[in-house]
Amino acid sequence: MHLAYPAVLAALLFCVGLYGVLARRNAILVLMSVELMLNAVNLNLVAFDVWLRDALHSGQALTLFTIAVAAAEIGIGLAIVLMVHRNRGTSDVDRLRDTAEPRRGDGDTDSTDEKAEAAA
Amino acid sequence: MTLAAASPGFLSPTGVEVAFLLVGLVTLGAAVLSVTTRQLVHAALWLVVALGGLAVEYLLLTAEFIAWVQVLIYVGSVVVLLLFGLMLTKAPIGRSPDADSGNRPVALAVAVTAAAALVWVVTDAFRTTWIDLEGPARGSTGVTGEILFQHWVLPFEALSVLLLAALVGAIVLSRKKPEGERD
User: Fold this and answer.
1) ipTM of model
2) Model confidence band, residue A97 (pLDDT cutoffs 50, 70, 90)
């Protein structure tokens, strides 16, 4: 098999995940997109391991480790999202603006928020 | 590594390549639907299709053990966790118009740029590289187990400590505070 097939598929999946991370508003959907990006990396690791015929199987061992780390990440991430939802009643990432810098002339916050997001 | 003439061309794909390509198209389509659909629960279900397709790709790359771990952990537990999370945060069933944030065009531009750059570089670099899938499976359970417990024992144990820490952290984070106690 050509190495180009898994490599291109992994690159495209990674970019789909990148789009999801940047474009989604719900925090859980952002976590899903992160999972897609991690899976793209896993596919790359497996493909290169099979191509290089590494005696230590570094690629596949690292893939297993990545899967375990991703499981830990999703557990902690969901716990954080649930805590935020319990405390604030929302899990939309662009409404959690407590640490954002205060803007000049923050009168009507909603319209300026929209404008700033569109410009950002 | 080799000249272009020495490796098989793209115009006469093998059966494995055709299967990889078809499953890859399904996987990519499911991933795109998962990040663009406006129904939150459907996004999680399309994610199941994408992750299951990736498990098939691992099988085609002869990494059996990884494929079954993928099915067990991702399709089996991560997606279920995500669905539980969606339900516990009272995600709306049905179409939600505000699933995408305001910076969607910027996100699309960044993703398309990154995809174009990555695909260009990757195809240019690995145009003539050929994976030899003949011979015994490279990732059967026996091989993976031997390697994991002969050469990768220390990282494996460190990983179990990490999982324990994550478990404790998740419990601490999601525990309800008793009345009168402030953090």
Assistant:
1) 0.88
2) confident
